[in-house]
UniProtKB/TrEMBL annotation:
<dbReference type="Pfam" id="PF14019">
    <property type="entry name" value="DUF4235"/>
</dbReference>
<dbReference type="InterPro" id="IPR025329">
    <property type="entry name" value="DUF4235"/>
</dbReference>
<protein>
    <recommendedName>
        <fullName>DUF4235 domain-containing protein</fullName>
    </recommendedName>
</protein>
Length: 89
């Protein structure tokens, strides 16, 4: 993806997906644990809870990255199909 359109679409989808995924993960974390999602290092947090949060957030982040890249590729192909060569930068 070396075109300006490709990068812009990928950035937009990634930002939107990351925002939504963060909100969903925070909601699930609060419903599951009863506590707010941690934002900074906390000495009172157990190692087990810190590891669970780290692994969960890393899994969500990796999923968003893969899905946003695939979504961007698909969206750009559709846009190029509709617009033709006018999208060249």
């Amino acid at each position: 993806m070396d075109k300006l359109l490709d990068k812009g679409v990928a950035l937009g989808i990634s930002l939107a997906g990351g925002f939504i995924a963060t909100r969903v993960f925070d909601f699930v974390w609060k419903k599951t644990t009863g506590d707010e999602a941690p934002r900074v290092a906390n000495d009172e947090m157990t190692l087990k809870r810190a590891l669970a949060f780290s692994i969960g957030s890393a899994a969500v982040s990796a999923t968003v990255q893969v899905l946003s890249q695939r979504g961007a590729d698909s969206t750009v192909k559709k846009l190029r199909g509709r617009l033709g060569d006018r999208t060249e930068v």
